[in-house]
Amino acid sequence: MKRLKSTSWCFTAFEPYQITTMVLLFIILGTTLSNQLFIKAPHPYQWLLIGLVVIYVGTAMLGNRFKQSPVSLLVQSVLTIAVMFGLYLILATLPFDIIPYDADGVLAGIDQVIGIGVRPSLWFEPFVTAPVLNLFSFFYAVFIPYLYFSIFLSLLGRPEYEKRVFITAFALTYSFSFLGYLFVPAHGPVVFYQDQFANPLNGGYFHQLILTSIEQCGGPHGAFPSLHVGASWFVCFFDLKFNRLRGLLYLPVVLGIVCATVLLRYHYVIDLVAGFFIATVSTQYACRRYGAVRSAQSAE
Amino acid sequence: MYRLWKWILMVFYRDIRLNGDARVGEDQAVIFAANHVNGLVDPFVISAALKRPMLFTAKASLAKNPFLRFIAAALSVIFFERPEDHRLQEARQYNAKAIEKCLEALSNRRSLCIFPEGKSHSDPAMKPFKTGVARIAASYLEIYGNSPPLHIMPVGLNYEKKYAFRSSITVTLGEPVEIRDAAAILDKAGAKQLTLLLEERVRAVTTNFARVRDSILIPWVAELYLQNGLAPIALGLEAHEPEKKVAVINRFVQVYGELKQDPHVRRLEKRVYALRQRLLRNGLSITELHLPIKLFQAAFFCFREFELFLLGLPVWLVGVCGHLAPLTLVTGVVKAVTKDQDHWATHALFLGFPVFVVYYLALILVIMVVDWRFVWVPLVVMPFTGYVALLYTDRMKQMLRRCRTFVTYLRHPDMHATLKAEAEAILHDIKQIQERQKI
After folding, report:
1. Among A242, A249, A250, A297, the residue to mutate for chain B (most B Cβ within 10 A)
2. Contact, B99 vs B78, CB < 8 A?
3. HSE of A131 in the Cβ direction (CA atoms, 13 Å)?
4. B113 — phi, psi (to 5°)?
5. Contacts A250 to B, Cβ<8 Å
6. What are phi and psi of A206, to 5 degrees?
7. Which residues of chain B have a CB within 8 Å of the CB of A158?
8. Which residues, including other chains, have CB under 8 Å from residue B412's CB and lie 6 or more apart?
9. Which of A70, A88, B313, B399 is spaced 20 to 30 Å from B274 by Cα?
10. Distance (Å, rounded) from C-alpha A15 to C-alpha B176?
11. Rounded to an integer, what is the distance from CA B301 to the centroid of its chain?
């Protein structure tokens, strides 16, 4: 297959996923710095973020000199994923430290409108018995191996065009979601409705596994939008386009993850809608973007 | 309706690919002229590939069958009497009305699809075209003065194996036939000339062979040529663009026709035949001849396929068990009534569709009587598992074939080396002929 040439996008020779990641890094760093200048003392993550920016931009500039090399694409992709996962850990606490408002009330209000007066998280409570909780905890936990497997398979076993689509859609989905985490900080129903739930969730093995994992990742992250829905739907949607059998086989799992986020009280319904929308738009954009490049090059 | 056709076709065929712009001639007066190789399946394929409703022409004797009459009404078929089926005078009168319908449709900027060969067949080459398209075009120009402008678009239908379940189809759009001078086709000679030009254009986008033997060997050599000594691509991906394959086959047919008597070409033909036989004997495919025997790649392959195998197995079981009864019925009846390859797919599709619809309706009815809350099972779970079972079966077949090839090569490295060397030598000779012929 013909190797994809570098194309001019915006004003630079960087690929869309590199630009997206850089812009995201600059936005998060900028927000942290502005917070330091006007409100508080320096944030502990500030130097880590500056380090990430320097490493990412430097590697991207260096990598673009060897753009035709598949190894360069792999290294860039792995670095982009590493940066995103690093930012995920940072964003567990950062928004709540530097953004002076909480969006839970607004999100809960929207949820109530969507549910026509009913609050979905509260409404589902009586149905969440121990086996149901454990089953959906399993789905919620499956997200991590599903995502890691998909990244591994997509970056190693697909043609170059599809790898670029994958990493671009990944970067866009995560970037938009992180902007949501940063500027719409919310703890989710598990905290916001804390006093209104009749009982705390108490499940079996898988539920305990989730609670432990969340603790180890720095506690509950932002709720808006749901990255569990966004990332799993992006991977599934990508597979439906390029590897239909895998996409279809994981579709019920993704549906399970979607339901689990609400049943386990981590997200409002609007978070799911936003996650779904971001993933769909990002994947479609990536497909069109590289589809157009590929068509132009085959025409040549 | 074309979406429904596509869904139905996608059960029988694995893939319908269009080479060309699906929007060509949209909202314009267009006549699509295609080769006719697969009975009543052909019009469905064209409509599904071009993603638009269109009118079709067919022999009037089909309308005698009430079921086909119903299908024809859904497909907007215009019937023509064939002189061999009817008395000439009556046929002429009947056809004059049919032509009027065609002209009316074209003047309303609708697409019309015609199979100028007149009948479906399994011959290795196209039959001579009848002058129907030219006659319709001439009448259109005479009555409507080429407003809206008429386009004649050649269409090539290339089936991987038209009778084979889960094979693929490529629909290729050819170079349009321009009618610059309307007066030129109004007489008989002009109509003949237009027909010949159209035939030539359709020939360019279809594969045509002098003998049945050639229709087996030449595509095989084209596959070897396109593979060009490269490793097979990952499962689930298309090896190369199908229009490329049609072009290569047509080039080979042309060169082979010219050099058939050349002793060098005759020797090469024998070697190709011997290599093919040897691969067939060992259950190997030409596309997997250069399969690399590398541990990391094999491990990655196992990892990827094992995930699909494990995850898909329960879904496949549900899908197969859920559809076994209607599938067995359809296969049994089709086997009993079909005598040639030409009608296998037609019978399977036209029988399968009502049988499966009735089966689903019966299931829904039974479940509604037993417990209506489970009505989503036949509505969602059954079609889902059925479709996944089809894809899963395709994939597992490919996977098993590749595994077998890998194990064969691993066990017999000498045989692998010999086969590869022979294939490379043949490829080298083909390229030499190419250079000699300056193609």
Report:
1. A249
2. no
3. 0
4. -115, 130
5. 311
6. -65, -35
7. 234
8. none
9. B399
10. 39
11. 30
B139-to-B97, B144, B148, B186, B415 alpha-carbon distances in Å = 12, 8, 14, 8, 64
Joined together, the tokens standing for residue B126 give 């196209």
Q: How confident is the prediction along chain B (439 residues), in pLDDT tens digits per residue?
A: 778 888 888 899 988 888 888 788 777 889 999 999 998 899 889 989 988 888 888 888 888 888 778 878 877 788 888 766 666 677 777 888 888 888 888 888 888 999 999 888 888 999 999 888 888 888 888 888 777 888 899 999 999 888 888 888 999 999 988 776 667 777 788 888 889 999 999 999 999 998 888 888 999 999 899 888 888 888 877 665 666 888 889 888 988 888 888 888 889 989 999 999 999 999 898 888 999 998 888 999 999 999 999 999 999 999 999 999 999 999 999 999 988 878 889 899 989 999 999 999 999 999 999 988 888 888 899 999 999 999 999 999 999 999 999 999 999 999 999 999 999 999 999 888 888 776 5
φ/ψ of residue B150, rounded to 5: -95, 135
Other residues' Cβ atoms within 10 Å of the Cβ of residue B190: 18
What ipTM was predicted for this assembly?
0.84
Q: Phi and psi (nearest 5°) for B277?
A: -60, -40
Nearest to B236 among A149, A156, A243 (CB): A243
Nearest to A233 by CA among A184, A289, A268, A277: A277
| Among B339, B292, B38, B360, CA closest to B168 | B38
Token pair listed for B193: 């000339």
In the sheet with B55-59, reading across from the earlier edge strand, the strands are: B15-19, B168-173, B150-159, B29-34, B111-114, B55-59, B77-80
**In terms of residues, how long is chain A?**
300
For residue A253, the chain B residue with the least C-alpha distance is: B311
The C-alpha angle with vertex B426 and arms to B425 and B431, in degrees rounded to 5, equals 95
Taking CB atoms within 8 Å and a gap of at least 24, the contacts of A137-140 are A137/A203, A137/A204, A137/A206, A137/A207, A137/A209, A137/A210, A137/A260, A137/A264, A138/A206, A139/A253, A139/A256, A139/A257, A139/A259, A139/A260, A140/A206, A140/A210, A140/A228, A140/A257, A140/A260, A140/A261, A140/A264, A140/A266
User: Is the CB of B308 less than 8 angstroms away from the CB of A149?
Assistant: no
